[in-house]
Amino acid sequence: MDIGYSVEQLRVAATDAVRAPSLHNVQPWRFRLRDGGIEILVDPARRLPATDPSGWGARVAAGAALFNLRLALAVAGHPATVRLRPYPAEPDVVARLVPDVPRRPTPTEQSLYAAIPRRFSNRAPFWPDPVPADARWRLSDAARAEHCWLELLIGVSAVNAFAEIANGANRVLERDPAYRAERQAWIRREHALDGVPTAAGGPRAEPQDLLPARGFGDRCRPPGRDFEPEPLVAVLGSTGNTAVDQVVAGQALQRVLLTATDCGLSVSMLSQPVEVPSAREQLRVSLGRFGAPQMVMRIGYGQPGWPTPRRDVDEVLDLPVHQV
Ligand SMILES: Cc1cc2nc3c(=O)[nH]c(=O)nc-3n(C[C@H](O)[C@H](O)[C@H](O)COP(=O)(O)O)c2cc1C
What is the pTM of this model? Predict the structure, then answer.
C-alpha cells in the first residue's frame, strides 16, 4: 500500500475532478493534500446564497467532483479509500481519500473515466428516439452502485404529473428577485472560465414547453425544433437527506451522467423541484419513495455539443508554499 498521494497525483486527479457539473457552473470546490490524503472541500467563497441557501447544490457538485477524483486515481492504478465528511469540526471538508491497495482499473472504471471530458449538459431539444431498455438498465444500475435510486418516469401521465410539480417549483423560484439576479450574474456572454455560456444555455423558453428551463439561453428556436414530446425523465434520490447523503448523491449523479455519456446519450439537469421543499416532498410522494429526490434529469439523443470551460486546476489547489 502507498504511504500517501503526491502533489502530482493530486494535480492530475483534480484536473479530472473539476470537469464535474455544478449549479450555474460556480465550481464550488477546493482540493488539498493533508498527511498524504487528498481532501476535497466546499469553497465557501463560491456559495449561491439565493439559489442554494442550504448548501445542498454545492455538496452535490463536490460529490460529483469526488466521483471523478476516485475514477482518476483508480485508472492511474492508485485507487482510494474514501471517508466522507471526516472532520465534524470542519464541515466544509467533504471527503478524504487515502491510498488503497494498488490494482488495475476495471473496464467500467476505464470507460467511465474516458467519458469525463465528453460529458456536458445538453439543454437543446433531443431527437424523439426512445432510450433503449439496456441503456435504461445501465443508468439505474449506475445509481444503485453508488447507493442511490433512479426512478425513470414511464408513460405520458407520469411525465405530465412531474411537469406540473416542476413548473410549480419554477414559478416559486422565479418570484424571488435575488434568485433571478444570481442566475443573471452567472450567465456569460463572452468567454469566461466559470458560469454558463449563453451558447450552452439552450433555447429561450416558449409557452408550449412541457418542462421548465433554467433560463440561461436566449436563442430563438427554428420553427419545428420543439422539445421532444415524450422526454425520458429520471429522478435520482438518496436514502436520506443529510449532508453526507447529498455528497453520496453527487457521486451517484456523476456516475449516472458518465454512464449516459458512455451510452451515447445526452442529459440536461433540472433541479427546480428539488430546490423548493414542498415540491420536493410532492415529488417524493408521487414516486412512492423513501429518502429524498436529489436531482432530475432529461435524457435522450441530442445534437453534438461541447463541454463548458473550467478554471485552471491550480486555482483550486491549496498546496503548502514549498510544493506549489
Ligand atoms: C446541483 C446541480 C443542479 C443543477 N441544476 C440545473 C438546472 O436546474 N438547470 C440546468 O439547466 N442545469 C442545471 N445544472 C447543470 C449546471 O448548470 C452545469 O453542470 C454547469 O453549467 C456546467 O456545465 P456542464 O454540465 O456542461 O459541465 C445543475 C448542476 C448541479 C450540479
Answer: 0.98
User: Which residue's alpha carbon is nearest to atom 17 within ligand 1?
Assistant: 24
The protein residue with its alpha carbon nearest to ligand 1, atom 7, reads 270
Which of 135-158 are b and which e, b meaning 16 or more Cβ less than 10 Å from the residue's Cβ?
bbebbbebbeebebbbbbbeeeee
Compute the distance from residue 233 Cα to the ligand 1 centre, in Å: 15
Per-residue pLDDT, 222: 82
Supply the residue whose CA is at minimum distance from atom 13 of ligand 1: 269
Interacting residues of 138 by C-beta distance below 8 A, sequence separation 6+: 259, 263
Any ligand 1 atom below 6 A from CB of 62: no
Tens-digit pLDDT profile for residues 136-184: 999 999 999 999 999 999 899 999 999 999 999 999 999 999 999 999 9
Length of the chain: 324
